[in-house]
Design goal:
Layout lengths: L2 H7 L1 H16 L6 H22 L3 H19 L4 H20 L8 H21 L4 H21 L5 H21 L7 H29 L13
Helix pairs in contact: 1-2, 2-3, 2-9, 3-4, 3-9, 4-5, 4-9, 5-7, 6-7, 6-8, 7-8, 8-9
Membrane topology: Multi-pass membrane protein
InterPro entries: TMEM86B-like
Family: Belongs to the TMEM86 family.
Length: about 230
C-alpha cells in the first residue's frame, strides 16, 4: 500500500503516531504539562477511533473501548501514578476479555514456558523492584493483572508477531516503570524508553486485532470510500 493510500484509508493510525511523536518530543521542553496531557491521551484515543471505524464486530468494540480507557490512563499517570495504574487495570480487564474469547486452546512446551513467564515475571518484578511494604504489594497485584493480559494475548488466536509482541512490549514498558520506583529511580535513560515501547505495544495490538478481525469476518469490515479496502 502506498503512503498516500495509507493516509487516505487509515488516517487515524497516522494521527496516532503523530500524537505519540509530538508528546515524546514536547515533554522535554518547557511547555506546561497540562498541555501535554491531551496530546499524550490522543495517541491511544486515535487508535480507539481506528478500531471503531475499521470493524463493526463486538470484539472490535471491546478493543476500541479499551483504547479509550488507555487514553484516560495515559493522562492520569501524569498527575498520579496510582490513579493511572487503577485505570490501566480496567484496560487490562477489557483486553483479557477480548483475548480469552479468542483462546487458541492447547499449546506446546515452548509456548507454555513463555505463558508461564508472562504470568510470573510481572508480579514478581513488581514486588522485588519496588522494595517492600504496601507499595511493593500494590505493584505486585497490578503486575499480576498485567501478566494475565499478556499471557492471554500470547495464548489467543491473534497473531503473535503483532498482538503477542505488542503485549510483551507493554510488559517491558511497565517493568521499566517498576524499576523507576526502585533501582533505576535516578536513571534518566529509562524515561526515554518507556513511552515509545509502550506506544508501539498498543499500536501493534490494535492493528493486529483489527487486521485479523477484518480477515475473519470481512462482512463486518467497515466500507470506506464506497468500496472495500
Amino acid at each position: 500500500m502506498s503512503r498516500q493510500a495509507l493516509v487516505q484509508k487509515r488516517p487515524y493510525l497516522i494521527l496516532s503516531v503523530v500524537a505519540a511523536l509530538v508528546f515524546y518530543y514536547l515533554r522535554v521542553t518547557e511547555l506546561p504539562e497540562i498541555y501535554l496531557w491531551p496530546i499524550k491521551g490522543s495517541a491511544c484515543a486515535f487508535l480507539a477511533v481506528y478500531a471503531f471505524l475499521r470493524h463493526s464486530s463486538p470484539p472490535a468494540r471491546v478493543l476500541a473501548t479499551a483504547m479509550v480507557v488507555a487514553a484516560l490512563a495515559d493522562m492520569a499517570v501524569e498527575f498520579d501514578l496510582r490513579v493511572g495504574a487503577g485505570v490501566f487495570i480496567v484496560f487490562h480487564a477489557l483486553m483479557i476479555k477480548l483475548f480469552v474469547a479468542h483462546n487458541r486452546g492447547a499449546m506446546d512446551g515452548r509456548d507454555n514456558l513463555i505463558l508461564l513467564g508472562l504470568l510470573i515475571v510481572p508480579p514478581l518484578a513488581g514486588y522485588m523492584l519496588t522494595g517492600s511494604g504496601g507499595t511493593a504489594w500494590a505493584t505486585a497485584i497490578y503486575g499480576a493483572v498485567l501478566g494475565v493480559m499478556a499471557a492471554s494475548a500470547w495464548s489467543s488466536t491473534f497473531p503473535r508477531w503483532t498482538v503477542g509482541a505488542g503485549a510483551i512490549l507493554f510488559v517491558v514498558s511497565d517493568l521499566l516503570i517498576f524499576a523507576g520506583l526502585g533501582p533505576l529511580a535516578d536513571n534518566p535513560f529509562r524515561e526515554y524508553l518507556v513511552w515509545p515501547i509502550y506506544f508501539l505495544g498498543q499500536f501493534l495490538m490494535t492493528v493486529g486485532v483489527i487486521t485479523t478481525l477484518r480477515k475473519r469476518d470481512p462482512e463486518l469490515a467497515v466500507v470506506q470510500g464506497g468500496r472495500a479496502d
